[in-house]
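Sample pair:
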Amino acid sequence: MRQELGNLTVKAEIQKQEPDTVQSLHDVVDRYESLKHGQKEHLYAVFLTNGNRFIGDKIIGLGSRDTVEIDIQDVVRTAALTNAGAVILVHNHPSGKPGATAKDIEVTREAREVLEKINVELLDHVIISRESHYSMRRANDGPF
């Protein structure tokens, strides 16, 4: 069964199959590795249950080669609609630079503050480039 919520597609398994669980940074990188080939920045919000089971994802920003805007209210609205307990932000850097920019850190801080108000945890902001990936949480960048 598939249910469409705006641009978010949520899949419900009829069988007794465990939904995908995000257990590590490696799981996130594997799922979004194709972003490293993008010519423009794409920003996804990944919505998870409190137990880190994958609910769905949504592209919340499509930018240029070196910047992307985030609609934080869209992230909050979708988190509420899906009853998410956690969110991970994922975007690519077509420039190849794997680290977080000052704007990435500012946006992540803002997203965390707003999500906190509805009791949704921002687990990480992962940046994927051609050569590597970068976890803001692991690097202790921003609000983590």
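Residues 12-18 have pLDDT under 50 and may be disordered.
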